[in-house]
Amino acid sequence: MKTSHRKKIKLAFRYVAVIALTILFLFPIYWLFMISFKTANEIYAYPPVWWPETLQLSNYRVLFEDGDAATVGNSLIVAGVSTIFAMILGTICAYSLARFKTGGEHLANWIISQRMIPPIAIVFPVFLLYVWFGMVDTYFGLILLYTAFNLPYVIWMMRGYIMDIPISLEQAALVDGYTRWQVVWKVVFPMCRAGLFATAIFTFVFAWNDFIFALVLTRTDVATYTVQVTHYFGGQSNFWGKISAMSVLGTLPIFFIVAFMQKYLVRGISLGAVKG
Amino acid sequence: MKNKRPLSQLILGDRGFKYQLIAPSIFILLLIGIFPLIYTLLVSFQGITMMENDTSFHGLQNYIALGTDTRLWEALLHTIIFTCIALPIELLLGLLMAQLFIDKLPGRQIFVALLVLPVVVAPVVSGATWSLLLDTRFGPINQILGWFTGEEVTLLWTINPNLVYPSILAAEIWQWTPFMFLLLLAALSAVDKSQLEAASIDGAGYWTTFFKIVLPAIWPVMAVAILIRGLDLFRLFDIVWALTRGGPGTMTETISIFTYVKGFQQFETSYTGAVALLIIILLSVLVIGALKKVEIAR
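Predict the joint structure of the above. Result:
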């Protein structure tokens, strides 16, 4: 009796701590979203207003009227297309590493180490190259770089997923007269589709959230939403309505994606170290 | 059955097939990784700046300049300071938070789902968010501090030299503590319960159990988490860019921001080439060393 009473108090205490932490960690996100619904008068009110009078959308309307919202479309194009490329090329490469041990541990380690070099050191040489070939501020240039940057991640993750599936089905398919390529498309891809899906989501989010590559390699034509957000920071004053509305436009899709991805989140962000 | 196989396979066989599979990926990695690197190496031996396109051979001039460039070494120092403060705090906070969640807690999944949201926000957006929060006049943080002090607080969080580091660290720690939390929670959940029970029957105290059983069990995951976050912190750019752009002066300039400023604002092309190669060499040594110690998904 006494111990159960103590347990209840302990649980209550933990709930208080958990709720306090959740509020603490969500408050910045709440503030960002809330500002995007404020009128200019409410944004620049002193003392700060904690909830707007009405949920008005003028900050968003401005973004669409000015055409700034198109940068979200640019993010979608470059993140989407580069994800498709990286997934297809990376998965077949991962298959080779997982099943044939191509290049051994050395190749696998080299590939993952490519992921760990700071982006600024990658993007500077790439920038020089792109200037040479006239590829700065083009979809192709950005898509190529994101594909290359995400390949190590895809290869690494998919290698883990492929090693998890039994090899016997592939052997059976070969006996049935499938070519080796058919085995890859018709057996391996369907077998690891959960892994493909999860990896693709993270690949997409990396490209979607990237700032430094886009900052260096875009000007106006293919500027992504992250670059656009920083354009609203002025020397003297910041356009807070635009900053917050543009940030929300870029963040909301990610939140929706992650809500459906809880199951894969741990494995995805730990480079597969935690199977979760 | 053999004659059913296509011609390419007869020629290449299985050996060829495994190389066909990796060829496109390796090609792209080399195209974006190695080819520009060689070009940069070339450029770093020249004298290209904003003013002149001097492509004559300058020898090691740029590399010698690296040694005496105090701004570069200060940027490296700032990066190390950020890493050495943020990483232990994130790790410790994440571990404490994970401890809260480890026992049965109804509704736990909802809280976890909410707590990890900061991780997936674009870092530049979280920098922007914190610049809204920290605004001197219209931000809620000075307002909340004002409730406690009873008078108007007008701290210049992103300008005052004493406050810029705490500001950047706050944004950084807010964004990435949930990352540590999520990984450590998964690791803690996988700790063998029977071992813990056996220890408690043997009368082992909380700390003994933690250091003798829990810590060794979660260490592999912890090491990977430290490696990933350590490397991320080394490339710290977005949050600092949104909050201070490396200022005031060059006080919060990280190695990534320094490189960006040199290469894309001052157009010291050849010199930046040398800086980029220095970073790659430094990191390669670190990464190779770390990968040998840490097992990721074997």
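Chain A touches chain B through 100 residues (CB under 8 Å).
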